[in-house]
Design goal:
Layout: H1 2-14, H2 22-29, H3 33-45, E1 49-53, E2 57-62, H4 64-73, E3 85-91, H5 94-103, E4 111-117, E5 135-142, H6 152-170, E6 175-177, E7 181-184, E8 187-199, E9 202-213, H7 232-236, H8 242-263, H9 266-275, E10 282-287, E11 290-299, E12 305-308, E13 314-317, E14 321-323
Parallel strand pairs: 3-4
Antiparallel strand pairs: 1-2, 4-5, 5-9, 6-7, 7-8, 8-9, 10-11, 10-14, 11-12, 12-13
The chain binds biotinyl-5-AMP.
């Protein structure tokens, strides 16, 4: 399925702006003209604008990356998140662009979105695989007036917002693995990377990077990731509209963020716990200073993970990778 689709997109890319006949595409893809038509409809549902003219064939007028920037703005119900959108076809990392904008006094709520990242980043200099046309790769700039030590709470808050949006738009049931992973059926669909620009104890901006695997097929993942990563469309069995999911994320993020600024972390903590995968289970936290195994008790009001080891000692985990 995905190789046919790739052939189709490659053909359109190679003959940019030209009409390609249904028969030509059918021969190229080795399928019927009806099947070609179905693939064209799939592209339309994903936001491609295609023109179909009798005896000439099909032509791509607009690729979804452009459409989706407008689509995101169209009917967007937020007043803070996503009022400014910087849409890039291809970037090194949206985090880098957002950092630059953060220094340049970009408005709070500004979002950088890319269709593809060449150097997508995970935590601790790890890589984040971000192929084009398939995912949501974006960075949100926030400027909360909170102490530095509270910034990790925003990672948890974002995880809840994305989880809520996934539930609303797909009906799938994501679970959160502390602190920054969203899993569907045990595999990672989302990673969140929170970075800070700060002086002394004053936050200038928090750059929240959100990576969501939306429409990848299994073969779009490098082999090394296939056992641990999945996409929403793989789990759902159909393509997911990225623009609409982005809008829902903006809305959920804005609601939770305003609630957080008003009332603090406590209500977010309760929501977070309702999606958490690890609480009450035995887990291992791999930290920079060593591994801690024990029962995950939950998070405290600062968002710090508490693990009770077999001697009954409770450890506070600020940063780690969790093994379930
Ligand atoms: C994360 O790091 O999960 C944070 C990922 C944040 C990505 C976003 S995309 C927009 C913004 N711009 C960026 O450059 N980054 C942010 P971590 O917990 O360290 O997980 C990284 C690990 O996840 C890697 O070492 C791989 O094992 C795995 N991984 C890489 N790409 C993946 C993908 N697309 N889906 C699932 N797992 C992946």
């Amino acid at each position: 399925q995905s190789t046919l689709r790739k052939k189709l997109l490659d053909a359109f890319t190679e003959h940019e702006g030209e009409f390609l006949s249904g028969q030509y595409l059918a021969d190229l893809m080795g399928c019927s003209r009806t099947a070609v038509w179905k693939h064209i409809e799939d592209l339309r549902n994903e936001g491609f604008e295609l023109e179909a003219v009798r005896r000439k064939g099909y032509r791509i007028i607009q690729k979804p990356e452009h459409v989706s920037a407008n689509e995101i703005r169209l009917g967007l119900k937020t007043s803070l998140i996503g009022q400014q959108i910087h849409y890039k076809e291809s970037v090194d990392s949206t985090q880098k662009v957002a950092h630059r904008l953060g220094m340049e006094n970009a408005l709070e709520g500004t979002v950088v979105i890319a269709d593809e990242q060449i150097g997508g980043k995970g935590r601790m200099d790890r890589r984040w695989h971000s192929p084009k046309h398939t995912g949501i790769w974006m960075s949100v700039i926030l400027r909360p007036q909170i102490p530095l030590s509270m910034a990790p709470q925003l990672t948890l808050l974002t995880a809840v917002a994305v989880a809520q949006a996934i539930v609303e738009n797909t009906g799938l049931e994501p679970q959160i693995k502390w602190p920054n992973d969203l899993l569907v059926n045990g595999k990672k669909v989302t990673g969140i990377l929170t970075e800070l620009q700060a002086e002394a104890d004053r936050i200038n901006s928090v750059i929240i990077g959100i990576g969501i695997n939306v429409n990848q097929a299994v073969t779009d993942f490098p082999e090394g990731l296939r056992a641990v990563a999945t996409s929403l469309s793989i789990e759902k069995g159909e393509l997911i509209n990225r623009a609409s999911l982005i809008q829902t994320i903006f809305l959920k993020l804005e609601k939770l963020y305003l609630l957080y600024l008003e009332t603090g972390f406590h209500p977010i903590k309760l929501l977070w716990e309702s999606y958490a995968i690890s609480i009450g289970k035995t887990i291992t936290a791999r930290t920079l200073t060593g591994n801690i195994t024990g029962k995950a008790l939950g998070i405290n009001d600062d968002g710090v993970l508490k693990i009770e080891d077999k001697n009954g000692v409770v450890h506070s985990i600020y940063s780690a990778d969790i093994e379930l």
